[in-house]
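Reading a protein record of the kind used here takes only a little practice. The record below shows the convention in full:
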Amino acid sequence: MSYTNKISLIKDTIDNNDIDKLINWLKKYPRLTKGKLTKEFESKWSSYIGCKYSIFVNSGSSANLAMLYAVRLISEKKGNFSKNKRIIIPAVSWATDLAPVIQLGFDPYLCEASKETLGVDINHFEKLCKEGRCKFAMIVHVLGIPCQMKEIRKICDTYGVILLEDSCESVGSEIEGIKTGNFGLMSSFSFYFGHHCSTIEGGMICTNDKEIYELLKMIRSHGWDRDLDKETQKNLRTQYNITDFEALYTFYIPGFNIRSTDLQAFIGINQIDKLDSNNQKRQNNYSIYQKNIINNYWKLPNQNNFISNFAYPIIHPNRNKLVEVLSENDIECRPLICGSMSRQPFYLNLKKEPWKLEYNKKSLLFSETIHNYGLYLPNHPYLEQDDIVRISNIVNSVIGGLK
């Protein structure tokens, strides 16, 4: 392979064969909006992840929004939401982990990042559950590296915390043989361009709770009952004295329209068949990086878990020089997600103060380090070993052995 070739951060998993299949399907003039293929995709995804129920939506961000809205509605129904709206959000996460929390009226408490996984720091997480009295938590498996879920679940059980799981960057990663997305009340996945599985745009919510499953279907589609099972439909119509005709335009909750389409479901159904192979390549690439990268400042410890790595993380004070050298060599890189959410303008511009009492620079030291020194390197199924060795050599030439 020529060293003059650009190495992209990500590659689209939708290949020419997928496009050809899509074209042939489109020639049959099928239904394109949400229909039976959406249900087929959801069922196949549930089987792959190992959960009971899946809801296909138009993005991973919408999946997060719907999850949070669902727990708010459930909490409101029990009369508890106004009493405690505190939720733990990882400081190292994504805008649409924190943004819907603010939009839906929760009080966000940012949790320090773990040096072991880049997910939540266990000690700070427990402190927020115990001393901060947080009622909800959303954890993120950063770049496909599984969080310490055994410890997190134990803490949540101890303090009665409702756990949500953002698995958008970790499709196929496993903890003791269990795929991420199976450890909380609900979990989210993203099918954006370049992610493990792409439907162009799209996302999925997974759960094992039947009541939440039915609620999510209403949240996804305006708040009506059209997608609900017959028993749930009947109960709602009886409760509100709604005829079958009136039910066509009856809305039981203030919902959204975050549906995806059968066109995207068609793409997704075929994408699932590639996941095991592609994820194994991501794991292999990650192992090559781990073997070759020299970084005395910080490096992820080796894990026994299967890591379907989205991109390889680097944290080092020489980050800016490294970005410059990588760019000169036509190797794409990005900030390590978006650093610390505590440094994002939309968080800093919040007028309320209660969450900021706990979250100052002293409690988010490693998150600050990630914000200032973090980046990630390419990892996708089309990378060759020579590419990774080349990237590693360039990285080592800038940071290797330096403290």
